[in-house]
Design a protein that fits this description.
This protein has one helix and eight strands.
Length: 145
């Protein structure tokens, strides 16, 4: 009888241990795989009134990063008074990402104006304006998917 009691207690203990391990495994599962992806359309714009774009940089998507974590930026070609770039991007919901725009231009006179803008899904999120002959403007936003 004592042997049967020990056998029953052993089976009960093993069952409880198995149930505990199973419960821990189910509750500790990483649910990030279930997180849906979100799409965004990022639009960069630069316009010079009375001048010419000389250079610039912007964050292209998918965003690549250097070994130190800083974003790799793409070049804006020189020439012209207008530049724009539209990109579609998709990442998991809750992910944060920067949109970065830096533009330099040469103005014809002191009243020349450089305007840069960042749009996310058609909504203006940031705008900077510079005036003069040596024009430089930069802006950055962080958006969440």
């Amino acid at each position: 009888m004592k042997n049967n009691f020990l056998k029953s207690a052993s089976i009960a203990a093993k069952s409880a241990l198995f149930a505990g391990v199973l419960l821990m495994g189910v509750t500790s599962c990483d649910r990030s795989d279930d997180t849906p992806e979100v799409n965004h359309k990022i639009t960069y714009k630069a316009e010079v009134t009375g001048g010419t774009i000389t250079n610039g940089k912007y964050a292209a998507f998918p965003l690549e990063r250097k070994s130190d974590g800083t974003p790799v930026l793409s070049d804006i070609p020189a020439g012209g008074d207008k530049w724009s770039n539209e990109q579609s991007t998709s990442l998991r919901q809750g992910t944060k990402n920067p949109a970065i725009l830096l533009v330099n231009a040469t103005g014809a006179n002191a009243s020349s104006k450089l305007k840069i803008q960042i749009y996310v899904d058609g909504q203006l999120k940031s705008e900077k304006v510079a005036t003069g002959q040596n024009l430089s403007a930069d802006t950055q936003i962080e958006f969440v998917y």
